[in-house]
Design a protein that fits this description.
Layout (H helix, E strand, L loop, with lengths): L1 E4 L4 E5 L15 E6 L9 H16 L3 E7 L5 H12 L4 E4 L5 H10 L4 E5 L8 E6 L2 H14 L4 E6 L4 H17 L4 E6 L6 H13 L4 E4 L5 H8 L3 E6 L10 E7 L2 H13 L7 E3 L6 E4 L8 H15 L10 E2 L5 E3 L7 H5 L8 E2 L5
Parallel strand pairs: 2-4, 3-4, 3-5, 5-6, 6-7, 7-13, 8-9, 8-10, 9-17, 10-11, 11-12
Antiparallel strand pairs: 1-2, 12-14, 15-16
Helix pairs in contact: 1-8, 2-3, 4-5, 4-9, 6-7
Length: 361
């Protein structure tokens, strides 16, 4: 089953469908294949990856040909898809979810002349790199905003899957909020899925019924933003600007942006200078930001603080995990004047003081 993306004029293909046939591109054209775990949709993780790929298309025009493959689960089927893309002659192949990592690595070893990029993974090869966005830069700033508007002093966090990436986002949100008001608590509900509108809706209602009047999601549907507006509580969107789905109560969205990264990788592949080098981009690197900020909902003093902190982040002078802080068991994790090491951030499986909810439970 095929459908047309009228904005880009390119064929999008469901994960189990036959691959499209393109006319032979010019000799210098770059063929790019990108694989999505679910549909691209109109907001969220996949949508934002697609916006970033469109930036690549806009920059290179007819010199790039993109094949998009949707609805590919992170199972053995993804290996088949990556292999087909490589056999088609795609020089740059992108997998947009952590779960593709092992399948991609296997295929990368079979096709050493192709370049592979895996989002959020950690395994690499001479022709495969991983990339991620330090979303916690954004959740820390969101925490400061949330602390300025909460009346209950209870914030809500919808956790996707209990891995270090999500713990970092939760903990930075809590630290950012408690820097403004140390009495704030952050309640967390885990749904053990990246995209499940039904579970996300239920988790949002559970948090609101538990007293949360600001909700931040680490999940990919717009359900939490919509539910928050229905219940007249504040929210933050995730990975893409979701303000349109909750215009009256959405404070802003913690957004990822891979446009510059894709442009750099494509340019290096074309030039023949690409080398495997994984990246975890920060707000300073333009990988992360807060967009769609609804300034009418935020106190003026909080806006001033946010803009100041964001500027520090752009300068690389804001550390979301600067001490002192304890974990939820009361153990001092980082003393005053210290900072959590990169290694400890990468293996984080615990919560900071102020988080209410069993880690991963």
């Amino acid at each position: 089953m095929k459908r047309r993306d009228f904005l880009s004029g390119l064929t999008l293909v469901a994960g189990t469908a036959p691959f499209p046939l393109f006319a032979s591109p010019a000799s210098k054209s770059l063929k790019v294949g990108i694989v999505y775990q679910s549909s691209i949709g109109d907001a969220g993780w996949n949508y934002q990856h697609n916006l970033s790929i469109r930036a690549l298309e806009k920059q290179f025009g007819a010199d790039v040909v993109v094949t998009r493959v949707e609805n590919v689960p992170d199972t053995a089927d993804s290996e088949r898809v990556f292999r087909q893309l490589a056999m088609q002659g795609n020089q740059l192949i992108i997998g947009t979810t952590f779960g593709y990592m092992n399948s991609m690595l296997k295929v990368a070893k079979e096709f050493p002349k192709a370049t592979f990029l895996n989002a959020s993974g950690y395994k690499t090869a001479a022709n495969m790199a991983c990339y991620s966005a330090s979303m916690y830069d954004g959740t820390y700033l969101a925490g400061g905003i949330a602390a300025s508007v909460t009346k209950s002093k209870v914030l809500g966090f919808i956790g996707a899957v209990p891995i270090p990436e999500v713990f970092r986002n939760l903990n930075a949100f809590t630290l950012g909020a408690r820097k403004v008001d140390p009495s704030i608590q952050v309640k967390v509900v885990w749904i053990n899925a990246w995209h499940d509108p039904g579970k996300e809706r239920l988790a949002t209602l559970t948090l609101i019924n538990g007293g949360a009047d600001v909700v931040l999601q680490d999940t990919n549907s717009t359900a939490p933003v919509a539910v928050a507006q229905e219940r007249d509580v504040f929210s933050f969107g995730w990975t893409s600007d979701m303000s349109a789905f909750g215009p009256k109560t959405c404070l802003g969205s913690v957004v990822a942006d891979w446009s510059d990264y894709y442009l750099r990788q494509a340019s290096q592949v074309i030039a023949g200078t690409w080398k495997s080098s994984s990246e975890s981009g920060s707000l300073r690197d333009k990988f992360v930001d807060i967009r769609g900020l609804n300034e009418k909902l935020i106190p003026s003093a909080a806006l001033v603080r946010f803009k100041s902190d964001r500027e520090l982040a752009l300068q690389g002078k804001l550390d979301s995990f600067a001490g002192p802080f304890k974990d939820s068991k009361g153990v001092l994790r980082v003393p005053a004047g210290g900072s959590l090491s990169v290694a400890d951030r990468d293996r984080m499986d615990w919560t900071v003081e102020g988080v209410v909810g069993t880690p991963g439970g």
